[in-house]
Design goal:
Layout lengths: L3 H18 L4 H41 L6 H4 L9 H8 L1 H10 L7 H13 L1 H8 L5 H16 L3 H10 L7 H14 L15 H16 L1 H10 L11 H16 L5 H15 L4 H18 L15
């Protein structure tokens, strides 16, 4: 499932665009938010599909080598361990997975050069060579290799990042988050089970959470701005970065309107987000302001937490 961190980031990006456009069509903005999240879920499937397409390309190369008039011994009797990898085979055979690809019209069909580039690099990758020659031929060994392949070989690839940025503006910041989803999928996979495709949302609460976060930040923006101004009196408010203000508005919205989320979690999440989406020193500024804001909101009884371990949270 898509993490709460990525849901916050998606809401932040859409809210920033909403403010920049000076639009008042909140329903349209909400649809844009859900579309952005759906695109992230598409990327999750695309990364898994990349494994299948690499294996298919390896099969093509193996078949071409075997069909030579005078193939070498290695070409005539190729090592098909990667092609026959149990994880890749089950991904390819998953009806749920293939149905999603068909419905959303997802493929790498226009990125043949990317597949070829990955294949050439794969043949040279030391971890791949060790895997191909390992005496341990088991499901767990296959899973271990694919997990390393995703984390160490696919996700850090600059060419992949470039292709994704060209394909969709919604994927500019998604790869690390979605990569974690893929790794989680692999870690949960048992030999006796089918492919454990993760849902887009962990539950209905997550979907409603991100929609409410968007709507309530917009509808209470003026109220939250007054609070921020009060505790940034030593700063020229007009010179504060728009992104800083929006991040703090979202943090206040979450602290006030979502009683099951600990205030410390909210504070930490938005400080971390600010490190990537605002200026170099913004995280320190935002931390200082929100600390004071949260203390005041608690004193005013506006931050109320419920649930095990949350009542009376300090």
């Amino acid at each position: 499932m898509i993490s709460r961190r990525l849901l916050r980031v998606k809401a932040l990006q859409i809210l920033y665009a909403y403010r920049a456009s000076e639009s008042d069509n909140l329903n349209k903005t909400e649809k844009e938010l859900i579309f952005s999240i759906e695109k992230s879920y598409d990327l999750y499937h695309l990364i898994l599909l990349l494994l299948v397409d690499l294996a298919n390309y390896a099969t093509q190369r193996t078949d071409i080598a075997k069909s030579k008039y005078f193939p070498t011994s290695e070409e005539a009797n190729p090592n098909t361990r990667f092609i026959d990898n149990r994880i890749i085979t089950r991904i390819a055979e998953s009806r749920k997975f293939s149905n999603y690809l068909d419905t959303r019209k997802i493929s790498w069909s226009n990125e043949e050069e990317l597949i070829k580039s990955f294949y050439r690099l794969l043949m040279e990758w030391e971890v791949y060579q060790e895997y191909m020659n390992s005496p341990d031929d088991s499901f767990n060994q296959d899973k271990k290799f694919i997990s390393r392949m995703v984390a160490e070989f696919i996700l850090p690839n600059e060419y992949l990042l470039q292709v994704l940025e060209e394909q969709s503006i919604y994927w500019n910041d998604d790869l690390e988050f979605i990569g974690s989803m893929v790794i989680k999928t692999l870690s949960r996979w048992k030999e006796s089970s089918e492919m454990p495709v993760l849902s887009m949302f962990s539950n209905d609460d997550d979907r409603q959470y991100v929609i409410d976060l968007l709507r309530k930040t917009v509808t209470h923006a003026d109220e939250y701005e007054v609070i921020i101004k009060k505790f940034s009196e030593n700063w020229d408010f007009e010179r504060l970065a728009n992104m800083d203000i929006l991040i703090m508005q979202m943090a206040i919205c979450e602290a006030v309107n979502f009683p099951s989320i600990p205030a410390k979690v909210t504070l930490n999440e938005y400080i971390e987000i600010s490190k990537y989406y605002s200026t170099e020193k913004s995280s320190y500024f935002i931390n200082g302001i929100l600390d004071k804001v949260f203390l005041q909101l608690r004193a005013d009884n506006k931050i109320k937490k419920t649930g095990r371990g949350l009542i009376g949270e300090v």
